[in-house]
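pasting input
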Amino acid sequence: MSTPANAISDSPAMAPANISPLRRFYWSVRRELWENRSLYLAPLAVAVLILAASLIGTIHLSDKLRDASLDPAQQHELIEQPYTLAALLLMFTTFVVGVFYCVDALQGERRDRSILFWKSLPVSDLTTVLAKASIPFVVLPLVTFAITVVTQAIMLALGSARLLGSDAGTAALWSHVSLFQMSGMLLYHLVAVHSLWWAPLWGWLLLASAWARRAAFLWAALPLLAIGLLEKIAFNTSHFAALLGYRFTGGPEDAASSGNAMSMAALTPASPGQFLTSPGLWMGLAFAAACLAAAVRLRRYREPV
Amino acid sequence: MACIEARGLRKAYGTTVALDGLDLRVEEGRILGLIGPNGAGKTTALNAILGLTPFQGELRVLGRDPWSERDRLMRDVCFMSDVAVLPRWIRVSQALDYVAGVHPRFDRAKAEAFLAKTTIRLGSKVRELSKGMVTQLHLALVMAIDARLLVLDEPTLGLDILFRKQFYDSLLGDYFDGSRTILVTTHQVEEVQHVLTDVMFIDRGRIVFNRSMEEVESRYQEVMVRPEQVAAARALQPMHERQAIGRSILLFDGVDGQQLAALGDVRRPSLADLFVAVMGNQAGQAQGGGQ
């Protein structure tokens, strides 16, 4: 920039090679997946266990299909139940994985001092935090969806293989288990609840992770507990606790109304329209956005611990 | 345009002042050694230059404000430190993939060629490498980036002497091309002495000594004075005096060489000797000021 000697740089890398923000984001997400292999290994391990269990479960499948003492609705529920349980178990797994991931996401890099290496590269704090946030918001729901659908398909295949020789027939099984419908329901549930409705949870955990020097989980949990208790002491009310409970146990729709506690429907808001127009959703998203903005700012100031 | 320009840089942690109005100017194409005792503010100064810490005062690095434009600045600046460790979980090949993915000026082939000369395998994880190998890997990444400023903070700490020698040889032989700027801090003054073009001593958050190496070599002389001539030598106002094997060694700034040769054996002081002399004077001044 100053002398002619500088201008005649021999390096080919001086040539354009501009990198789009999207590409930086993409590599930042891949980086997260390299570091946190439990994001997909944990649900895969659970899926293997589910398949092993369902293999045992197929032994009584033909009995269930032929049991005349049940009315059709009960029978349907009985046949479909393992599939719903598999989905719930996988969702629970990725939920737990997501919580642990978020708590560590912005603290781990400070603990092992690698934050100085990451910051020596031209990736902004915003890109980094968004890449980390995309794990609970996007990656985990997609991983859950893919693994659940494949698991359910294999369960169905195992059940069908089991029934091939018997008189009950695979058609009866297939009439009870509609993979397509279950997948659609699952995807809606994952997007509506895991990504959107629980957004403030993910944002809050990431903020605690960016804030805390150690024990990020306590930093995440204790303030909530303290607010609840202080409210109880000061006003003898429990609005805050109710608010948290409402957030965790389902959507703006009253969870109790759908009746069946075992099904995903219990946790899924009834209609998309109702869900999208509920103020609770938008307040939660605004809170999550505020948490992420604060996390970006904190990461800028934070030094290795 | 200067590569780094700082005026009145201040930074305090609580009541501890790390940078106390530091002024600094580094032209492009220099290899500057920033040398100071522990707690002198070296790392804080580097952190400010790298946009890792907020500061008061004026600071431009390659014409940018490092605090507000860190990510943009890092396209032209490379940083390697004893403490800025590579994450232990990453594989060598993943590190290459990632840097190639996010850095527009990274030349992957160059990094791989450098690694081929080492015993590091692409499939290894960082946790499986020795400390020397991790530094080699980091150096391979850094040298493959066509940066305008390279900042090295104690880059060879904890490495054995073979690695350290090799490190500076690679840096000078393969990397430095006269247009890049290198800023290095280290305690191992003897090792960088022959690498530097400029040297600065930092003490209590200020630059207390700032010379090019040519100046250092032409101005400073050390004389092992014969006992009978000590008084005459002291009359020439040495910067510093020390005793070694029963003789006085006096360090002079800008005194005629022939005059000194009459007093005893004249030699060029090492950077370490000069550092001790300057720091000794600093401490004396500080005490004098306190009284």
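fyi Residues 215-290 of chain B form one domain.
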